[in-house]
Automatic annotation (TrEMBL):
Sequence ranges assigned to domain HTH araC/xylS-type in this UniProt record: 194-296
PANTHER family hit by this protein: HTH-TYPE TRANSCRIPTIONAL ACTIVATOR RHAS-RELATED (PTHR46796)
Coiled coil: none
Protein name per the record: Helix-turn-helix domain-containing protein
Pfam families reported for this sequence: AraC_binding_2, HTH_18
Domain of life: Bacteria
Transmembrane regions listed in the UniProt entry: none
Keywords per UniProt: DNA-binding, Transcription, Transcription regulation
GO molecular function, one term: DNA-binding transcription factor activity
Key word Cytoplasm present: no
Amino acid sequence: MTDEEHDAARVLGPHLVRVERGQRLEVRVTALAGPRLVVGTLAYTCDATIELQGPQPDYFLLIVFRGRLVCRHGKRYLELGSGAVVAASPEQLSTIRCASGSLFRVIRIRPDLLRARLAPLLAFPPEGIVSFRPLVRSLLGDAGPLAKSVRRLLTGPPGDRLTRHAEEVLVDWVVRNQPHQFSGGLRRGGWDSAELVAFVKVLMDSDPFSGRSMTYYAQLAGATLAELTGAFQEDGCLPHEYLRGVRLDCVRRFLLRGEQPSVRAAAERCGFRDNAQFNKWYVERFAEWPWETARRGRVE
């Protein structure tokens, strides 16, 4: 078994891959396995049919970044194009057909994590398997902040706080947005304050440059701007203050790594146009001038 085939087995579990006679199969895989999630991105060089072998203990989330997939979800076949996402319970997902050049992500969620994130939304703890309906939803495209927060599961260190945080945000999104037999009994009224702040912080950490206003992040979270502002105030800051801190952290990384030709270029790359105000915020956050950081980065 090659390294790529081994990684594919980590992502998909036991499976067989079938191709048309005469076609040469290659697979490219990026995988990360943690105690609660297994995340992987796969691309096959030719049309392929993936047959999952049972029993599969975990829940599946399929996200298509490029190309076209057809999956068998229970007794139905679902077609997924770019930006599509579908969730499946253990044993519901049996076959995945992917077109040549398709790029897709598979996320396997441990049952205890999914039940733990679902339980607070119900009046009673869920029992047995959570069965997802065969319905395809959109994940905002592969450039969306939520998709980028999922990427952090692949690129972030396994013990990183954001990685653990992003796991919970992802599963929260699944149980709220992918229909299942408990959907009708979910607690209404949207996020509570702590959940809303946690969700938006992950979006800001993952993609701090797309939003031109706080309304952008409020809409992604399904909240009003007033609800978002109030939730952050309860957490001890305002949403734009948190986002400013994330962007200042980005400037600091650029300076330490020498990835921009000047302090001004790094600041403008991260959305800071007023040089005097930027310097003030930078010193308040890091207790040194940005050019001192840049000088230390060049020395190191």
